[in-house]
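Researcher: Re-running this chain for the archive, since the previous output was lost when a drive failed. Same request as before.
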Amino acid sequence: MPRPLLDEDIRPLSEFRSNSASLIERVRKTKRPLVLTQHGRSAAVVLDVGEYERLMEKLEILQELHTSLQQIAEGNGMDSQTARKQVLQRLGR
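Model: Regenerated structure tokens:
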């Protein structure tokens, strides 16, 4: 996902209320997130749906990797040949 441009992609919530359709269209076209501010502080982020889905997929992969590394560190890992044998046995092959 492209990073927001500080001079273009940070807008007050009041502007978003007034121009939501055009700002959402810009998010769709640029694929950059839009940061909304309230009382001068960041309050919310508007993302393109496709970019959000890609972000969630990456997060899920990173979480699975983290879990795997924890399991290996705890001694619960196995080599690929053993894992393959177990998978094939479960599949009945």
